[in-house]
């Protein structure tokens, strides 16, 4: 729950519709971006494992995205549909598979995201 004007609502407290609105808003680095949509959905997991560069531009864009946690939350909720495939919340399918076990056990997506990725902001390094 949000407290105060600058606070953010925990992604788990949002509806699917609210999550979708956030990840398709101007805040989302992928919305209307310059990256080819195919880069968000590499052909196969094996392809990405063999050549991680194929997903590197999309993953780099996600790294500092302010709605990354919301994106990851929606993908985990939509696991049996589109959320299982491609890049969501700066994670590859195999990474989300491991994160999903912890998420199902009650761990918040904000705790699942590595701190360096979670706190990154455009124009700032994660260590700053």
Task: Name the descriptors.
128 residues; disordered N terminus; globular; single chain; disordered C terminus; 7 helices; mainly alpha
Order of helices and strands: HHHHHHH
Tell the overall outline: globular
**Kindly, what is the distance between the CA atoms of the first and last residues, rounded to a whole number of angstroms?**
27 Å
Largest beta-sheet details: none
The number of strands is 0
Estimated share of beta-strand residues: under 5%
Which stretches are poorly predicted, pLDDT < 50 over at least 5 residues?
Answer: 1-6, 116-128
Rg calculated over all Cα atoms: 14 Å
Give the overall pLDDT as a whole number.
Answer: 78
Question: Helical element count?
Answer: 7
- The percentage helix is 40-55%
Helix/sheet category = mainly alpha
């Amino acid at each position: 729950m949000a407290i105060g004007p600058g606070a953010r609502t925990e992604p788990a407290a949002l509806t699917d519709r609210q999550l979708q609105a956030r990840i398709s808003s101007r805040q989302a680095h992928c919305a209307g971006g310059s990256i080819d949509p195919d880069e968000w959905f590499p052909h196969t997991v094996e392809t990405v494992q063999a050549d991680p560069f194929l997903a590197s531009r999309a993953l780099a864009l996600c790294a500092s995205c302010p709605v990354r946690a919301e994106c990851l939350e929606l993908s985990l909720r939509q696991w049996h549909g589109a959320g299982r495939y491609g890049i969501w919340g700066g994670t590859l399918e195999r990474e989300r598979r491991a994160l999903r076990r912890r998420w199902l056990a009650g761990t918040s997506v904000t705790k699942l995201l590595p701190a360096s990725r979670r706190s990154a902001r455009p124009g700032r390094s994660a260590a700053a």
